[in-house]
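Before we proceed, please read the two lines closing this message. Report back on whether the structure tokens fit the sequence:
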Amino acid sequence: MSDPLKVRVRAKMLEQLDGDGGTDAEVAEGDDPRFVAIRDDLAALDEVADDDPLVDQLATKYWAP
């Protein structure tokens, strides 16, 4: 059985954070708009239920199958 969409979206977002190529200093500063947007989306994802429409929106945004 495959993981729920919310789990796959979260994994994709974390993968994007890890693979974005930012140095440790850039990530620590927290002012890169790409990192800020992904972190905000991760925080929002953590606050909703598995069947919330936001999960589908983020799946589309981050191309999570």
